Amino acid sequence: MAPVKSPDETEVVICGAGPVGLTAAALLAARGVEVVVVEQNHSTSDEPKAISIDDESLRVYQRAGIVEQVLPIVVPGTGTRYYDRNGEPLFQARGPQPFRLGYPFKNPFAQPDLERALVEVLAQMPNVSLRFGVEVTAFDQRPDSVRVHARADSGPIALEASYVLGCDGGRSVTRLSQGIEMTGRSYPDVWLVADTLDDPHTERYAMHHGDPARPHVIVPGLDGRCRYEFRLFDGEGTPAEAPSFELIRALVAPYRDLAPAQVERAVNYRFNAVIADEWMLGRSFLLGDAAHMMPPFAGQGLNSGIRDAANLTWKIADVLAGRLSPSVLTSYQRERVDHVRATVRMSERMGRVVMATSARFARRRDTLIERALGTEEGRAYLEQMRYRPSPRITDGLVLDADRHAGVGVVLGQPLVFDTADHRVTRLDEVLGPEWALIGVDVEECDWAAVEPIVHQLAPTTAALALGEYLPRSRRRVLIDVDGAAVSEFAPYSEQFVLLRPDRVVAAAWHPDRSTDTVDAISSWKERVLSHG
After folding, report:
1. What are phi and psi of 461, to 5 degrees?
2. Would you say residue 530 has pLDDT above 50?
3. Rounded average pLDDT over 275-304
4. Are strands 263-269 and 191-196 parallel, antiparallel or unpaired?
5. 338 and 332 Cβ atoms separated by less than 8 Å
6. pLDDT of 229-244, one tens digit each?
């Protein structure tokens, strides 16, 4: 065996070059962190696994400064249309307030296109190293670093890093080699997934057909791509075997003719609903499928992984920069696990309800949905997807979330007029990828008391005027242009709002409480983060 080379040193090693790992690398690189991404395959994947990306995720790419490279590979989507047992449309779930986060709500795409776009932009970043054909084998956890052992074509190698992110999928070496278990269940149902080419569908929405005789999903994509997913029954296939072309052609026959060359990918699979017991072990972390797997019916698998990256990467960057104590990293699982657990449960419920195979149950389901649609509240609940779990954070790197309903929530991205450069732009374009401190109709003299926060976290600062006046201020002033900023910031009138880099409201307080708030935020750097 060839000797192990001297370890390369970097700040963060990311195991896995799928969408979650590449997204994490982009977010870290945007904050100036040195990153090495290792991937056991010799190139990006050619399998279009994930097919739906949310407005939240597109906003994450905006924060990383690469959304313009991602938008060309997505279809600007309009949600999901649900059909009853007879193939008639019931309702279309378009999500809550359109474009509140700055992007279309739910957008079809092809995973290979996203991976290629991310690799292309990361390859141009001087603080990112992409290493394909490197298989991770083990980890040595140390008090101040972690050593990653791996095999490359040239022989064994070692990487020394401050932190490791395991974004290496459901069979994660990062998880399995360190003995982390997963809790949950696997489902016996078998589904056939076929990605096809030259498809006639041009809809910008996904279609979920609740036909108990054959539940199925259709998701049109770019340039004639289309995904079909069909529930299989006994004798039609198992995950151990590839589906036959004859079966695929018969299943899609109600929608199109099909030739063998028009099948880009076809697999049989079973889905899991499992969550890792630990997401942080020493200096290593689990993200995406390495940390949780869920049924596909809510389209939240990849998006949940991107939320993981959005939550964790800025904390690591600030710890490395000395702005925060390493103890804040324990907030990662605490802030994410409840929402992931609720999302897994929602995905399971949607599978049981929408994809039911009982004719009697489907009939009753359709009747109840039609009754709900007959009421204003019921229609809003379904069409605005109010059944989705709230991502609000109440336990972690937030202050007084139990006393202020506006703390722990993700702030929207309204258009504002920015007096610093005299143009109308999205809020995140003004604030950048760092922390932000916004004074909403506060007095100019109130800013002196929050100067320690500015010194510690180096946030972008701005005054926001909700009324029809232009305050005299030495700093940039943001002005509402269409009512959206007024609506978004109304709960914070005459308060300071501290926004984390992931655009979660970390704290909101009236100026007379600035001293106490400054002391609490100082503790995020100086001592162990407490619960609550």
Report:
1. -115, 145
2. no
3. 96
4. antiparallel
5. no
6. 999 999 999 999 999 9
Strand partners, 465: 479
Q: What's the rounded Cα separation, in Å, for the pair 68 and 72?
A: 7
Tell me how far apart the alpha carbons of residues 507 and 409 are, in angstroms, rounded to a whole number. Answer: 10
Q: How far is CA 147 from CA 226, 321, 430, in A?
A: 43, 21, 39
What residues are paired with 420 via a beta bridge? none
Residue 249, exposed/middle/buried by CB under 10 A (0-12, 13-18, 19+)? middle
Handedness of CA 94, 342, 392, 57 (dihedral sign): negative
CA dihedral 367, 368, 372, 378 (to 10 degrees): -150
Angstrom distance (rounded) from CA 401 to CA 414: 23
- Round to whole Å and give the CA distance between 220 and 206: 7
Which 8-state DSSP code applies to residue 291? T
Which residues sit opposite 423 in a β-bridge? 418
Tokens of 117: 């776009």
Q: What is the CA radius of gyration of the chain?
A: 24
Distance, CA of 16 to CA of 172 (rounded, Å): 9
- The type of residue at 197 is L
Distance CA 25, CA 43 (A): 16
Rounded to the nearest angstrom, the gap between the alpha carbon of residue 128 and the centroid of all alpha carbons in its chain is 21
Q: What is the dihedral of CA 397, 311, 337, 52, to 10 degrees?
A: 150
Q: Do 497 and 505 form a contact (C-beta atoms < 8 A)?
A: yes
Do β-strands 128-132 and 35-39 pair in parallel, antiparallel, or remain unpaired? Answer: parallel
- Is residue 447 a contact partner of residue 440, using CB atoms and an 8 Å limit? no
Residue 452, both tokens: 């320690």
What letter does residue 530 receive in the DSSP assignment?
Answer: P
| Alpha helices (H) along 395-483 | 427-431, 451-457
pTM of the model: 0.95
In one letter, which amino acid is 463? A
Selection from 294, 243, 245 nearest residue 268 by Cα: 243
Distance CA 509, CA 513 (A): 6
Q: How far apart are CA 257 and CA 239, in angstroms?
A: 25
DSSP at 309: H
Amino acid in position 352: R
- pLDDT digit string (tens) for 60-115? 999 999 999 999 999 999 999 999 999 999 999 999 888 999 999 999 999 999 99
